[in-house]
Amino acid sequence: MRRAILVTVLAAAPLLVAFFRWEGGSLSSADVDSFFRGRTVDGHYAVAIKKRVLGGESYLATVHGYPTNLSVCEQLIAPYNQDQSSSALPGDYFCEELR
Fold this sequence. Notes:
With 99 residues, this protein is an alpha+beta fold. It has one domain. It contains 3 helices and 5 strands. The radius of gyration is 13 Å and the shape is globular.
């Protein structure tokens, strides 16, 4: 499952580079969210994997490329929410469809 998340993040990189004309700078989570929000990838909305942590939320990855992105996201985060010991920091993972 962790490999699937990494593949998803790496697959998004060319899109982000092209959209933001990134030249080695950094992107904020808000930039990534803005890029995917309201757009579809192959006709389906992307889904953000986020984590509730002290002080707010962390944007971890984006799931796209599946006809059931939300379902895939929920399957990816379920083991981490069931066994908090597998996470470095406490907090609940959740999925947010980027409509």
